[in-house]
Amino acid sequence: MTDEAADEILFERRGPLGLITLNRPKALNALSLGMIRAMQAQLEAWAADPAVTRVAVRGAGGRAFCAGGDIRRIYECARAGNERDLYAIWQGEYGLVATVARFPKPYVALIDGIVMGGGVGISVHGPYRVASERYSFAMPEVGIGFFPDVGTTHLLPRLPGRTGTYLALTGARIGPGDALAVGLATHHAQAADFDAILDGLAAGRAIDGVLAGLAAAPPPAGPLVRERGLIDDCFSGESVTDILGRLDVAASAHASFAAETAALLRTRSPTSLCIAREQMRRGPGLSLPDAILTEYRLVTRVMEGHDFFEGVRAVLVDKDNAPDWRPASLDAVDPAWIAAAFGPADRPEPSFA
């Protein structure tokens, strides 16, 4: 393990269990490049070790499983013109997501607290996703001039109805009830029982039995379930403009959820919204490796644009929450540029197969 990641990510062997602990609680366990490289190497080692029959990953601190990648570091590298480190982060993160998705042994994510961005990537593509009572999922990238990535081009359009499109375009947070209802989480347990789950996994007991034995009562559904009909109707629009028009019509019929959702969409980067809508259109026809490659191609275009840097400035640097999106309206977004952004990158492309 690199010195950079020595304290940021911890690895343990407990009998047949390989345990990963993301250990940057003050940074909500956001993934640094050192953590990404260390986790990649450890997963490769455990995949080849017959004594390890299952792997679990958790986050330290109780506030977050993992709030994503290290966006501030990405911002700094790009601003400094440090393309080597910039693209090392993207290739490393996306490569790790692909490794998790094809990991040959049972992989259990114990998700307590916030799970966003890269945290989604290293959890949701595995077969076991255990949500605690504090589980809070979001892919909020359109709010910083980016787009939903880490394989969600493949994942989100495969969720029931138009729930994935809603999550992609709004960046809204959902809790464990909604996550279980649409399949983002597979199990629910109290955070206080996570250690007992690990004990059962370390004892070599059947994973399904361990999780069933410590399952908590189903949590209540949230807006994703309650408003499913409205979401399916409005977010089936062919364009973002169409979606907003449908939401406005619903809002005029006194649907407060529609009004709030339309208002939220209007705060997002118009370019990001158009990219995300196109991702949801193309995603059903892409394998997961192809979806990740598509996201890498989009990254190369977004890193050359304006909105990502302005969004990070407004949300994470100056924190004025007043981004100056360019273009500022959906009508001004060039459809030809959006289509071209999905084409092959102008730089060497990694393989995620």
Automatic annotation (TrEMBL):
> Which reactions appear under catalytic activity for this entry?
3-hydroxy-2-methylpropanoyl-CoA + H2O = 3-hydroxy-2-methylpropanoate + CoA + H(+)
Query: Keywords of this protein's UniProt record, alphabetized?
Result: Hydrolase, Isomerase
Instruction: Please indicate which superkingdom the organism of origin belongs to.
Output: Bacteria
Cross-referenced InterPro entries: ClpP/crotonase-like_dom_sf, ECH_dom, HIBYL-CoA-H
Pfam families, per this entry?
A: ECH_2
Q: Does the record's keyword annotation contain Protease?
A: no
- The EC code for this enzyme is 3.1.2.4
- Domain Enoyl-CoA hydratase/isomerase, chain residue ranges per copy: 18-342
Entry GO terms, CC:
cytosol
Which GO molecular function annotation, any one, does this entry have?
isomerase activity
Q: Where are the transmembrane segments?
A: none
Q: What's an example Gene Ontology biological process for this entry?
A: L-valine catabolic process
**Which NCBIfam families does the protein's record reference?**
PRK05617.1 (NF004127)
- Please give the name of this protein: 3-hydroxyisobutyryl-CoA hydrolase
What is the species listed in this Swiss-Prot or TrEMBL entry? Methylobacterium soli
